[in-house]
Amino acid sequence: MTWLDEIRWDDQGLVPVIAQEAGSGDVLMFAWMNREALARTAELGEAVYWSRSRQRLWHKGEESGHIQTVHDIRLDCDNDVVLLKVTQRGHEPGIACHTGRHSCFFKRYDNAAWQTTDPVLKDPEHIYSK
Amino acid sequence: MTWLDEIRWDDQGLVPVIAQEAGSGDVLMFAWMNREALARTAELGEAVYWSRSRQRLWHKGEESGHIQTVHDIRLDCDNDVVLLKVTQRGHEPGIACHTGRHSCFFKRYDNAAWQTTDPVLKDPEHIYSK
Q1: Pairing state of beta strands A82-88 and A68-75?
Q2: Fewest Cβ atoms closer than 10 Å to its Cβ: which of A18, A24, A35, A113?
């Protein structure tokens, strides 16, 4: 029985993962990991997710350069959600979102509508063109 | 088309929800909402989740008294994850976890094992006995 066996993987073999910026406490993004992704994250000290759309391992930052250094890996009471404390690399301030924003959670509920609150820090065309 | 229609509900009609403490930035818990739960959360200003185990709406704190006042409801770039900024009520410091801890994320990966880091603030028997 290893630490990976203690996780309650869902029926697709995945676990939800929250990435939180260690310095600011900002919640940056939400993604999924399978067993191999979590094992590699622990080994590398960098976030490796499972891309459900591409059905493959996704070393965050592999295309954008926006690597996440992982300081802390936490597991919840039910053993079915992972929380990472990370430093978002590759741009200052950090860009975790594919839209070029700091965080993926840039839409805010206000008066029965979603309002975009946070600025684009870098044009996605320039993030992914290199 | 309402703000609720913009959400990409999963094939069970649910969306994952992260609850973050507004004051400290601590990630407290992770749960799910269906359409009605999110509508009631926005209306009440208190977190109402969908309990997958009980298959019913779950007004957080209904048994424990540990209500979550919601200050901010955010949606991610893909419209499929919700982030709440909350104040955890009913105990000081706040208890979000059914184990009587501040946060559900009290297990930390260390040296290929999960170590429990955070103290129990109140015995669960006393939380749920009233």
Answers
A1: antiparallel
A2: A113
